[in-house]
User: Fold these one by one.
Assistant:
Number 1:
Amino acid sequence: MLRRRLLSGAAALTASASLLPSLTGTAQAAARAASPGLPSSAEITAVLRRVADQWIGAHTDPGDNGWANATFFSGLLALQRLTGSPRYLTYARNWAEKHAYGLSGGVTTRHADNHNAGQAYLDLYEIEPDESKISAIEESLHRMVYTDQPDKNDDWWWDDALHMAMPPFARIGVLRGDPRYGDKLYALYNHTKRLEGGPGLYDAGTGLWYRDKRFLPGGIVSPSGKPVVWSRGNGWVAGGHTKTLKVLPPSERHTGEYRETLTRLVTAAARVQRTDGFWNVNLADPAHLPGPETSGTSFFLYGTAYAVRARLVDRSAYLPVAARAWNGLVSTAVHPDGFLGYVQNVGDRPESSQPVTYDSTANFGVGAFLLGGTELARLAGS
């Protein structure tokens, strides 16, 4: 059962500063271990196809346009760009057309989750340009930038929001050559990072993020009294930064900060990687519901592989981290038929949707796996 502990002053600072060192024993040993072999790009792609094909075959109805399913389509379209598969393009196009390229909540929505579908719509627009495909996501973001309380910047109160909405703001801004989108993106981001809940959700001492203000020092802790730093929450952050950096030019004035923040996150995550390649659901307490978990691990794979490709981190030191994650996922979570297991389902903390088992799966977990794997396949081929 969750318990709360009130920490203040020096005690809160101590809790924050000790977040990572308490974990580094076996994790550092794992990081120093001989790096596993990285499969070829073709071998990685074959596994990705198996996982994608299994999901599509089991879901003839492509589903809703909420954040979870939109994450799957983001991953599927990343694989489509890698392979050129007409089947994946058709499946994604049918999904988008089913929803008329619209947003849950309509164009007046400010909720980051509702903007996530815009990422897949922008992908489809890039493949087959048609302004109608991005009219809803563009109008919704335009309202936030120009007409609907443009000075309100507290919409992203949880760290998942960075994955859901950072990339659409960046992409529309670059597409239209309008720096106001980048400015608004940063204002929203800065609130999440430095202001939400008082100090912000970013722990500058570790490079990791709290899921929301309830988990800040003085709030929710693990059963053993350690901080709760949710793996998938940090994975969402890694994914949001990665997708944003893929589109922003180096000259954009906030690119440097996004690069530095992702680098710190990838570095911090590497320190607490498990010997089997996975990450625990609570990065700050390996005894808190231990076991393999696919969604957070896949997003850390995505961010790490990108960081290596973009030369944000040293290839010789961090390629083994990505390879361990991939090999662990394939050997432990991928069923022979391509079903992807050990995905923690919808929630906001380690206790959510437990137990996580070999047969636990979810659309967003498959999407995260496809994103991480496609990035690794590109890295293996470079």
Note: Residues 41-58 form the longest helix (18 residues).
Number 2:
Amino acid sequence: MFTSKDIECRSIFVINCIKERNLRVSSGELLLEEGDEHKTLTKFPFQKILALFIIGPITITTPLLEKCKKFDVALVVMKSNLRPVFFWANHAEANFLLHQKQYFFEKTDISFAREIVRNKIMNQKKTLEKTRLKSSTILEAKELCDKALDNLGGIEDYNELMGTEGYISKKFFESYFDGFNWTVRLPRAKNDAINATLDIGYTILFNYIEVFLRLFGFDPYVGVYHRLWFKRKSLVCDIMEPFRCLIDAKVRKALNLKQIKEDDFNIVKKEYMLKFEKYPDYAALFYQDLVDYKKEVFKFVQSYYRAFMKGRADLVDLFILE
């Protein structure tokens, strides 16, 4: 099992292979090469790698998998449009006690779900505060966050919890993106450039969170807040909730810096689709911030693991945005 020391001394690498690049194992190191001459761009000692995120076409060789297995390196391969096509990690797949607790967890128990929602709302309020704006919409949204946090402890019904989280999120988006021609948050609908960019960021966050859950041996399909659904990794959806604010903040900052533009997208059947040549730029937009938070993500998942194994939601150390 990984420890906090592991996360401090090991790194997550994002490798862009959309251009003519290649990965090769040589003398116990991972080499990133470019061009027909196989010019070495950089070397990665496997002992220093926690996870590899590879964007674009890549050939996975047996030596690469052997080294990843030996040094417990998670491997995520995505298409150039950032959609994951391959995930490999076997750090704690034999943790049958954890799986047993997940499979037999009482579905009417919303204690862990309540803490996840609490953490999300806390960070939504903190994100609003960091704007330093005092508009009526911002002030109203912050007040609603406070009221929701005060009332969460008394919520015992799953549908009421969902309703509270959904309402606060609606008000959060309305206030946080006020002034950017915001209309409404429509997940996966891609009805405008902001929604399309949020979807890109959340997809990257989803893949990022899954790596950490697999480090501890969780079955990513069994959640406590998002219910079971065919092929949906419900637990990943759960654990990413407190960290969504990182994506929201990055999108708002990028809008202010004019890094997100209408011209970056094609409109296909009324949906905003990012242009192929812009994928590396938008991937880079989010990955660095997430890598900077690797210790916080690890500690949250570690705390959640320990609390879940003990059946004590109150032991989860919440992630508080600085």
Note: Residues 170 and 288 are 27 Å apart (CA to CA).
Number 3:
Amino acid sequence: MTDTFARTAAERERLALIGEMADSFKPLAQAVDEAGGFAFESAERLRASGYTTWAVPEAYGGAGMSVYELVLYQERIAMGDPALALAIGWHMGTVGDLAAKKSWSEDKLAPFLQAIAAGKLMNRAATEKGTGSPTRGGKMQTTAEPHGDGYMVRGRKTFTSLAPVLDLVVVNTTLIEGDTEGPADFLIPMDVPGVSVDPVWNMMGMRGTGSHDLVLDEVVLPAEALVYRATAGKRAGQANPHLLHVPACYLGAARAAREEALNFAASYQPNTLDRPIIHLPHIGALIGEIDVELAAARHFMYSVASKWEHVVADEAAGIAELGAVKVFAIRTALSVADKALRIAGAHGLAQTHPLQRLFRDIRFGLSNPPMEDSVLRLYHQRAIQETTLP
């Protein structure tokens, strides 16, 4: 399936660079999955290429990459290594979101973005075992309290993707000051005393994301580590188009599954046939269904991504649409992976075959935000409002 979504010569050039790297990631992706490890070499290649700096605005030393480009390149990385794409996507998307929203004061944001432009890797640590997905609004059990001239942070975070190579982490906490408390974020270097990684990540899918637990054992921080304090006791609900890196990852994985299925069908010829199975009508029908589904999902994703290169007038509708892209992408990717395995049959279920890994990785998309039930509930609420308007 020829890519048709790079719009300019610069995007095509960057996509070619990303594509060359992504294709080289495939052997290590398989080995990492089998070992439950992390693709250190692949991650370092992305860093060395400068890609991890592209989301930083030009004024701070980056490339000023748009949301559309983020989707374009993340999808391509996922064709080579979906786990690495998802992990690095949290770095890219979080940097892009922080730069776009400017919710931090300039004296906090500028040195952070300059550090990313210099090659530092970061992620946001938000999820906790006791609170579940942060999108549900649960109170953070990780706490921060005044300590001397600064703060002390205690807690444990789950699903900290890129943990083996992180330099910086933005930690969501409950800040307790006397009788008051509320959400607050701290920017913490990974080499600060009391910060450690507990290597507990051992999942069925996305095994190579390195999403271990982040342990914060009485971490003493200076006052300037407090980078954001939510007002009115809660975080503002704003659209985050940079989360489109999630559907981009899973559609990239689905495209990789399609590629594996085609390669198998074009080369597999049982002695009952005079040519490979790709010529069989029922195999052709499965391929046709895969291509139609991928075309619809990719056009939807890139159409929505292009909208966010400009100011979106109706942000509420935009939030719903962003969620719909993710839901549709995951449903599509699941369907494509299933059909790809139908084409390869039992061959694709061998532990050494990439298809079974892609099938497991894609299944993990159901657990990434935004959650499907939340998106459907949002559309339900909008439908109710529509029917009650005067």
Note: The chain has a mean pLDDT of 95.
